[in-house]
Amino acid sequence: MRLISLDVLRGLTVAGMILVNAAAGMKYGAEADVAPILLHKSWEGLTLADLVFPAFLTMVGIAIPFSLRQRAATGAPTGPILSRTGRLILLGFILSNLYWFADFGDRDWRLFGVLQRIGLVYGACALLFLFAGPRVRMALIAVLLIGYWPLALLPALDGLPNDIWQRGHNFVASVDRVLLGNHLYVKGPEGYDPEGILGTLPAIAQGLIGIAIGELLLKREGQRTRLLLAAGAAMLAAGIAWSFAFPIVKDIWSSPFVLVTAGITVLTLAALHHVLDREGRAPGIAATAMLAFGANAIAAYTLHQVTSGVVTWDVLLLPFHATRAAIGDPIASLFPVLIYIVLIWAAMEWLRRKGWIIKI
């Protein structure tokens, strides 16, 4: 079974990741006043930019029952899962350190990153799907999310005063500082890695939530939209209520952050499923365009990572400079970003029309 809504939502998340990264490139590379909703929160809170990565991790989990159900039934070896996990981590390490490879003495290398977290979450969730039942996985989601709260409130290992509402002042960040040293994304005495060590635990819970949604889609034909709406709304409400005590923080992947972002992702999937997966319903132009990103998600992200500087090329900045005085930076800065996204999309659409799927 293949649902168009899944491919379209995966494509939307990839396009969203490119959008927010390119917007950050405009802010820091072209000194544009970018709309705040397209930039990550420095700590507590949530913007559109903060939604795309957890949405992709949720989609990683949703895809696992579709891709591994035959392997689960036949008891096939786990070698391919471990191999794919290793390839994702290796590719992620390379992409996280492109500038370091160019000049070893210029900066510190970074151990973690986006693809590394995707690889770790995929590997853990795929193995749990094969070797643990649904009840065990649901219990593990609860243990990981509930247990992460007191873990984050433990005294910091390096003596920094603990204040979960203040950037970097928590046990989770201190583990990164102590074990990773200078090999962090956020530097300094309050530094940490937003894809760091302990934050991988609730990220795995996010993937397991995705698996539960994937199993629901496989088993509950005819009731999918209603159940997706109920599950998404319940997670969103629980996450918002919890956030008054444990803040929504992407950089440590807090438990309410997992529930809120998973809830929004599932509610979006419910809407797409209702519209796109009706029998005999052909996807519209917008949905078809997203299929190009969805079919080659990792390839699109990799191409974006190695070409991220293109968005600030002089030729792409021409419409920005020509219109910023008239319409303001927040809107004018979108022109180079959208042109850049279209260029990445064109490459992925070419692959799709050729029938080529680049798998990692």
Automatic annotation (TrEMBL):
Question: Could you list the residue ranges that cross the membrane?
Answer: 7-26, 46-64, 85-102, 114-132, 139-157, 197-218, 227-246, 252-272, 284-303, 331-351
- InterPro entries xrefs: HGSNAT_cat (IPR012429)
Going by the UniProt record, its keywords in alphabetical order are: Membrane, Transmembrane, Transmembrane helix
Residues in domain Heparan-alpha-glucosaminide N-acetyltransferase catalytic?
2-225
Top-level taxon of the source organism: Bacteria
Protein known as: DUF1624 domain-containing protein
Organism of origin is Sphingomonas koreensis
| Lineage per the UniProt record | Bacteria, Pseudomonadati, Pseudomonadota, Alphaproteobacteria, Sphingomonadales
